[in-house]
Amino acid sequence: MPLPENHPLETGQTRDSALLRSYRGEYVTARPVWFMRQAGRSLPEYRALRADIPMLQACLEPELVTEITLQPVRRHGVDAAILFSDIVIPALLAGVEVEIVPGRGPVFAHPVRTRADVHALPDLDPQALDVIRRAVALTVAALGTTPLIAFAGAPFTLASYLVEGGPSKDQLRARTMMRADPQTWDALARWCARVSGAFLRAQVESGASAAQVFDSWAGSLDRETWRRHAAPHTARTIAALDGLAVPRVHFGLGTAGVYDLLPDLGADVIGVDWRTPLDLAHERAPRVPLQGNIDPAVLGADWPAVADHVHDVLRRGAAAPGHVVNLGHGVPPSTDPDVLTRIVELVHATEVRG
Ligand code: 1CP
């Protein structure tokens, strides 16, 4: 099934935006910019709205999702919105018990560690995604010509929370499952790919103009293990978008060692973390537009240091077939939001020659 007729890419509303043009590798004079975790605790207006409502409950209230998604667009003038949601939402909608514990992250009531645990995971009823469809439709209508980015967690990243039961330093239990019981791992990763894929597809069908898969923790695997036990599942998640003509972005931390493999998995754009200079990322994946990679740590420095670093990122990204400016990971909650606004102004005011 192709994109619906009223989709912003079909009506033309977002088709020629700087974001979409850059994701397609077309030349734009001023680079588009958005920030991972641009909605969230760095914004006082977000903290005010979220004061009395738990994180995951907020994600299931379409009006609230729309308002929170739009806050950074209004405040900073970024070139894209990303849906206010979380990678664990499809698990929650399938009926898995999970909450986001403030200051910690997602915590699952029952960690998934055995074959029986994996087989007991409930299927995601497609109707359960209606709340996401409503939230996206409302958000897209309010955004007008600003494109919305859909997202989902890659199976290894989502599964690492399910297996550990919560955040972990090095995803040790999930990595052990791959080696100790590869069949159970495979069944779990397939479940994650199904629910994440359905979540991603629902957002795009309802009006998102691009899609990003957060393979955030992929860098804790060596290349061969990633290729064997994680990449096929990431590819399945991306393939859930088959038939829907939107750009697909892959983002991971510490994934420079697999950039060359990403286009074959269906990624059209590579999200680069702060550790890999964009000129080096471009050498590793020469035909692919890049996204990134301002070091989130610089946001706490004086403005001249920030501006210097942003210029360096623009210079290094210039050779890539397209460059969407972003951070190398999410906005730290302690960030002064005015710094983000100034970065947007600086990026928009700087002409880059490819
Ligand atoms: O207000 C709060 O206290 C909740 C903090 C918060 C927010 C705002 C969490 C908990 N999730 C989110 C929203 C969120 N999560 C978005 C929204 C859109 C935006 O970027 O503005 C997105 C894209 C995510 C994706 C997400 N959640 C990822 C992938 C991105 C990444 O950071 O690598 C991951 C790993 C999660 C899990 C998660 N959810 C929340 C936290 C604190 C974490 C990370 C926990 C950990 O460190 O393991």
UniProtKB/TrEMBL annotation:
InterPro entries: UROD/MetE-like_sf (IPR038071), Uroporphyrinogen_deCO2ase_HemE (IPR006361), Uroporphyrinogen_deCOase (IPR000257)
Keyword terms, alphabetized: Cytoplasm, Decarboxylase, Lyase, Porphyrin biosynthesis
Boundaries of every Uroporphyrinogen decarboxylase (URO-D) domain copy: 32-41, 149-165
Gene3D superfamilies from the UniProt entry: 3.20.20.210
Alphabetical list of PROSITE patterns matching this protein: UROD_1, UROD_2
SUPFAM superfamilies from the UniProt entry: UROD/MetE-like
Subcellular location: Cytoplasm
Site location (Transition state stabilizer): 86
BP GO terms, sorted: protoporphyrinogen IX biosynthetic process
Keyword Glycosyltransferase included in the entry's annotation: no
HAMAP family given in the database record: URO_D
Similarity-based family: Belongs to the uroporphyrinogen decarboxylase family.
Subunit-level organization: Homodimer.
Functional description taken from the UniProt entry: Catalyzes the decarboxylation of four acetate groups of uroporphyrinogen-III to yield coproporphyrinogen-III.
Name of this protein: Uroporphyrinogen decarboxylase
Organism, scientific name: Serinibacter salmoneus
Lineage: Bacteria, Bacillati, Actinomycetota, Actinomycetes, Micrococcales
Gene expressing this chain: hemE
